Amino acid sequence: MTKAPALAATLKRIERAAGSLATASVTRMDEVLPWFRGMPADQRAWVMLVAQSGVQSLVGWLRQDDHRAGTQEVSDEIFDAAPRALARSISLQQTVALIKVTIDVVEEQVPTLAAEGEEDLLRQAILRYSREVAFSAARVYARAAETRGAWDARLQALLVDALLRGDSSDVLASRAAALGWSDAPPVAVAVGRSPGGEAAAVLHAVHRLARRLGVEVFGGVHGDRLVVVLGGATDPLAAAEKLAAGFGEGPIVVGPAVPSLDEASTSARSALAGFRAAAAWPAAPRPVAAEALLPERALAGDAEARRVLRQDIYGSVLRSGGELLETLDAFLTHGGALEATARALFVHPNTVRYRMRRVAEITGYAPLNPRDAFTLRVALTLGRLEPSQPS
């Protein structure tokens, strides 16, 4: 491109004053920006380089014929003088403040920099240039945010992979530390369908919801599944309900709460097993606890669910005496009818009612509740299939 004739004399003056303008700009930053004074010396030196690059870029920009038409953009190379790490040390708002100070210093020097009769042209050019520099800074920060978001999503996916594989606590701790995970207890894992789209965007939506709740989260997208680890939620099921907007359609299964991330593999396995089996209970609440899906998980082949049903439920009834087990079996056989059960056992209906209350106290599942009765039936079936296991 050819030099703009109207600013030919001014350009020579700006080129000669480039160093002094940058120095004056940094001095002014030190005077009016308290946070700038507290920056490390190396970062202040980077800002000085950017200021010098900015003045040199102004000269190059003014040489372009089309800058007065507003069609000439400022190259993002103006910020290449400093490493990308500076974008993580200085916020976009602070960068805008630095640009404003530099532009103010240059505008104050217009009477000295501009050749006779070119003052207004230079002021107008500086105004347009400052706008383009601001846009350029925004592009740089947007790219940095995209890169950081993609890297964070990758780190989270690696941590979730380690969690699902049951890797050692050292591996989990090192990867969690890279994410800034505070490991606030309790910790629980929620599994649901991913809403689709880029993994970074999906996780960003979940993090935004989690910040409103004041809980820690990290997660990963595995195929069509979204796995989210929650920390610091006193009621993980209630927290998952408020995070449901970040999931896609379908069930959301929450594993049991554990004290720390070291033990979260247990919660993750339960949640994944529950998610695989959730289709067998279409009326399940959303979200649903993995423990509420024990019978479906057992039928789907989950060994842990079979163990809990066999040992913790059937075994507890068996150890409480034969009468309790016999009454429960008769009650379930007669479809939960107290009178029919009492006739079959030759006892009073109140006796049946009392024994069913005892079953509920021992197991946590009430035979009078249809859903709990189904769980108890599966537990009795598994216990009898493997009679040597419940003890």
UniProtKB/TrEMBL annotation:
This is PucR family transcriptional regulator. Pfam families: GGDEF_2 (PF17853), HTH_30 (PF13556). Belongs to the CdaR family. Residues 324-381 form the PucR C-terminal helix-turn-helix domain. Residues 166-274 form the CdaR GGDEF-like domain. Gene3D superfamilies: PucR C-terminal helix-turn-helix domain. It comes from the Bacteria. The lineage of its organism: Bacteria, Bacillati, Actinomycetota, Actinomycetes, Micromonosporales.
